[in-house]
Specification:
This protein starts with 14 loop residues before the first helix and ends with a helix. Helix 4 runs antiparallel to helix 5. Helices cover 77% and strands 0% of the residues. It is built from 14 helices and no strands.
Length: 312
């Protein structure tokens, strides 16, 4: 649609970029999930009644379909495919195949990062489960239970976080097996290293009759102190990580600002030799900056983590 002078409608040239912003916002909304605020409100208004649930009521079939879609989109590993979708959208808007290729290349990298984050979260859950196990079993021992009965009574729930290793420990306690050996096997899982101390205390208590409850209390105290130290370190590193993320996103905001001003930076970057050169140099500098910050954070977390982070 043109005016009398043949000029286009003002702002029409920037419409594709606005559409890209809407798509990016929708993708971030789906990836982050919109249930956080709803869950928080439900917790705060628990017991008030049905009035706290302000969501529209949907038919059961639609609700099941939406739950399946949310569950599929919420899988940590599958979120890496959003890179390909974003690359396809940018490729269509920029009329170039380079964003699609970049998005496809970013899928394995993003998948690797998400898997690493998932393993780290699982290790943290196992570490918390070990602390809970020590405290619960020690409480049962103080109440007068035998070690095997105490482990079966108080350790079933914490040991579920340890997977097959926890199931082997419960089976050994229930059927008279070698509990210390099962604990040492379960301690090989990342985050469950504290079970080696539990196994040592259990072995000493069985052989010499020493008090197992006091040993478990000491192990739980040491593991809590280590967990609190890690949490404090993560809180201190949250600032540098947030700063690095903001700085990494600044080029994207610059592109959006240029598009809003009518400069059409996507066409310059994707359809001119100088733009392609700037895009390549900028991408390399972006990657180098992120790698450098990640290396600094891993070094601050500890020498062992730095080596694991470099090889993971």
């Amino acid at each position: 649609m043109t005016g009398a002078g043949g000029e286009g409608v003002p702002g029409l040239e920037a419409a594709p970029m606005y559409a890209a912003m809407v798509c990016a916002g929708a993708a971030a909304w789906l990836m982050a999930g919109r249930e956080d605020g709803t869950k928080r409100a439900r917790l705060l208004l628990a017991g008030v009644g049905r009035a706290c649930d302000t969501r529209p009521q949907l038919p059961p079939a639609c609700s099941r379909l939406l739950d399946a879609v949310r569950e599929r989109l919420g899988c940590r590993e599958d979120r890496a495919w959003w890179c390909l979708a974003a690359g396809a959208v940018l490729g269509l808007l920029g009329e170039s195949w380079l964003p699609l290729v970049a998005g496809a290349a970013a899928v394995p990298v993003a998948r690797r990062m998400l898997l690493r984050r998932g393993r780290r979260s699982a290790a943290e859950r196992r570490a918390s489960a070990v602390v809970e196990l020590c405290a619960a079993v020690a409480g049962e021992l103080h109440a007068g239970r035998q070690p095997d009965r105490a482990l079966l009574a108080a350790g079933a729930l914490p040991l579920r976080e340890l997977g097959e290793g926890g199931a082997a420990v419960l089976a050994a306690a229930r059927f008279g097996g070698d509990v210390p050996e099962a604990l040492r096997e379960a301690a090989r899982s990342p985050g469950a290293e504290g079970l080696s101390g539990v196994a040592a205390c259990w072995q000493v208590a069985v052989e010499s009759g020493a008090g197992l409850a006091k040993g478990l209390d000491a192990v739980a105290l040491a593991l809590r102190a280590e967990r609190d130290q890690r949490a404090e370190l993560q809180a201190l590193l949250a600032g540098p990580r947030s700063t690095a993320l903001v700085l990494a996103l600044l080029p994207a905001f610059g592109l959006l600002l240029g598009a809003a001003m009518g400069a059409d930076p996507m066409r310059v970057l994707l359809h001119s030799p100088a733009g392609l050169a700037c895009l390549a140099v900028g991408g390399l500098l972006e990657w180098a900056g992120l790698a450098w910050v990640a290396r600094l954070v891993r070094t601050a977390e500890g020498p062992g983590k730095a080596e694991k982070g470099g090889t993971a």
